[in-house]
Write a structure and sequence with these properties.
The chain is an all-alpha fold and 85 residues long. 59% of the residues lie in helices and 0% in strands. The chain is elongated, with a radius of gyration of 16 Å. The chain starts with a helix and ends in a 29-residue tail after the last helix.
Amino acid sequence: MTEREKLLGRVRMYDFALVEVIEYLDCHPDCEAALKYYREMRAAFDKAAEEYEDAFGPLTARETDAHGARWRWIDGPWPWEGEDN
């Protein structure tokens, strides 16, 4: 497994955890344990996403810097593409 795949796997893992805890919080908005878990997973997701983007570029077009002379989001490979694409 490449470093890119490892980092993207961590981003996906924390993103999944966030989706699940958000759904739980929709029904249990006062659950202190879930709120604490959300904050922990959010911090972990932000860190993993930052590490990935520092090494391999933006995860989504929202994180693309559009101040240059060229739209760089299309420069591959895209996060969901394999190393050989």
